[in-house]
Structures are given as C-alpha cells and as structure tokens.
Amino acid sequence: MSGRVGILFMRLMAFLPLSWVRALGWLLGRALFALLGNRRHIAQTNLALCFPDMDAAERRRLARQSFVVFAQTWLDRGWLWHAPRRVLERRLVLQGAVHELQGDAPTILFCPHFYGLDAAATTISMQVQRRWFSIYSSQSDPAVDEWVRKGRLRFGDSQVFTRTTGTKTIVNAMRGGGVLYLLPDMDFGAQDSLFVPFYGVPAATLPSVPRFARLGRAKVVPVLPRLTPTGYTVDILPAWTGFPSEDVRADTALVNRRLEGYIDSMPAQYYWVHKRFKTRPEGAPSVY
Predict the structure, then answer these.
(1) Is this prediction's pTM over 0.90?
(2) Is the C-alpha dihedral spanning 242, 215, 184, 177 positive or negative?
(3) What contacts 15, CB < 8 A, 6 or more positions away?
C-alpha cells in the first residue's frame, strides 16, 4: 500500500509548478539530512575520503546540499514520468556533442551516478531516435518496480536488461546499432571487480566500460546531467579516443580518473549516499 500511495503522490507532483517541487525538495532534503544519521555518516565519510583537504565544515555543507539535490531530483521524477511532453520540452535541454548519438554506430553512454541520471535518460530518449538499452536493478515493491520501469521506458525505443542478462545479449544489442546506457560506478562487491583508485582510495570497480566497449566495438560517450533552476541540462561529451586499450585494469582506472573530473564540476550532485568503499581490499578495515 505504501508504494502505491507514494506513486500517487509522485503523480501529483507533475501538476505543480517546478519552483514548488524544488522548494518541497529543499525542505525534504534538509529533513532527511537531519533524520537519516546512517546515510549522513556515509556521505560525510565518502567526502572525507575523497576530499581530505576540504574543511570539515565545508564537507558538511556539501553533504547537506547533496541530500537536498537528492530529494529534488527524486521529486522531479513525478513530472519527468507523468507531465505532458510539452512541459518536458521546456525543462530539459540536450547540448554538447549531440552528433555522437546520431547514426547507428555501437555506443556506450557512460552516465555516472549523478542524481539527475533519470532526467538524462528521459531527455536523450525523447530527443534522439535510437534504440536504447540499460541494465536495471529491480525494486523490492512490485508496484514501485512497475512504476520505475514504465517511467524509464516512457519515450523512444527503449528496453531494460536485468543484471542476470547474458553478456552476449547486451553485446549483440549494441552491435545491432543500439546504445547501452551504462552506470558502472557503484560498489557491486569484489566478484568481477578490480580495485583501482577513486580519488586515491582503492575502490571495487566493475571493468564493464572497457569490456563492453571492446566486445561491442563501441565508442564511449560520457553523459552529464545537471540540475538547474529551470529543469536540467544534459551535456553530451565527445567520445573518448584511444579507448579501450589492451589493459583492462588501466582502462578501468582511467574511467575513475575521468569520473573524478566530472564530479569536481558539480560535487553536490553526485551520489555520495552510497557506500562506494564498502568492499575493501583483503585485510583493509571498513571505513564506515
């Protein structure tokens, strides 16, 4: 029941002015920062590890702002997934190297876990005519799971794979002219991961970007969604050159280094509430 009530609430968000949605998100984010001590601790620990030279008060301010952006972008899913298309066209701006998305060349969209990731997916699938694929983690509540799936498949020729989908299926989809929307920057455990630096800290990182790029003969195009007062801008960056190489570990480390640069441009909008360093190298103590 709680899931269905939450979905109804999110549908109602689609009818509110954006300024009201963002104001409510600001209040909700501040409340979550005050109430969710465990998540607050995770975010502040991540920031301390990644920005050790930053003043403690500044890290706390950044963590609080991150909670606000998290809440605002979550409420924005109400209008992203339910408002009329004309509303979205006013609020979503696609810019940068959009030409990288044209044609039928196998393509990986490297979209890190910025809070606006669903806005990026909606913007691109609404404005660019391609076949889109993403890898989806099911939600525990069936009603919420259905709502999220429908929201993410709202526009365009889109399909979601699960984490049990075979590599061959995904590679064939790319080689057939599809675009894989890939979000590989979370801690998925030690299995299949490599420990490479993330802001100088060893982080369990899936080497999925270079491996899918090699198997799919695909170019890698970074996508950076940015929350703005009027909606979102979604920046398409030029495809990486000379990638992948023959060294999977070096390529995976390069992915993290480039991710650091993207985060530095908008640190409050990155997903700091995730235990990015939960999986530790053998013998290393927990940081949380």
Answers:
(1) yes
(2) positive
(3) 83
